[in-house]
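Appendix B, example 12.
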Amino acid sequence: MMPDVRRITMKFIRSTDRIFDSVGVRPLGICVFSLSVFLLVNLVSVSNSVIRVEAVAIGEIVHHPALVASFATDVFVKQGDRVAIGTPLVELSPHFIDQKIGRLDAQMEQLINESKLAQAQLLVKEERWVAPGLRLRPNRPSLENPTSDFYAKQIESLRTRRDMLLSDRDSLLIKSNFDGIVKEVTRVGSSVAEGDSVASIMPEFAQEIVAFVAPTTDPEAIATGALVRIVGATGPECSNIGMVRRRGAAVTEAPAQLRNFLGSKIHGMPIHVSVPSSCLLGNGQIVTLDFIKSSVS
């Protein structure tokens, strides 16, 4: 019985081999071909609904400018230190502000004295101008109120400037606005012009994601407001949907983290995407994005 089964099996195999030889293919080739067709169909269907690209998470350096011209009296951090929001970075000297406040105080005192003198001189002159019968009337003609208003406005202007300087004095202690790492910081004794940065912080986590796409990319998929999904990022919050914030108008070189499969540089239009709320991506981290077509919000 067994020899018959074996003979029938071998006969079937030889028959199928003759069929495959006649068409020029083998079973393995048919399997590979079928699998390739299946993958191609799925790839086409996916590409019709999303555009998948690699991108890099970026956090821009945050500068901390001086509100007034001064010089540093204390520096509380050094380059490479990790800081939190509210950490003191640099304290500036109040020397120049105190000088300005002193000059304003002197000007206000001078105006007050001039106002008193002008009022006294005006009273003496009006004694000569106004008839004796009109001097005690409430509505008598007088330049007393206009003169008083003239000096009061000047004094009020100086007082407002003084209050602004006092506000600037309170801001001489510069604190960090972000959690991150100190990139640069000024030195003790260094002069600082108004608006110059005294310290810069590299945020610990990225504030946006930047992808670089070909200029021929479907404009609808990368339009401002289009929805974007982060693929493969750790953390449940990163599965939330991001949004295109803006896009560049010209082709630029991508950061060094992004390379093609040959290791060459990548060029493309930068597309800036928001990081989903509570999704923590490290600076420079590479992520995969799916731009969802027909999803402009």
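The radius of gyration is 39 Å. DSSP finds four helices and 15 strands in the chain.
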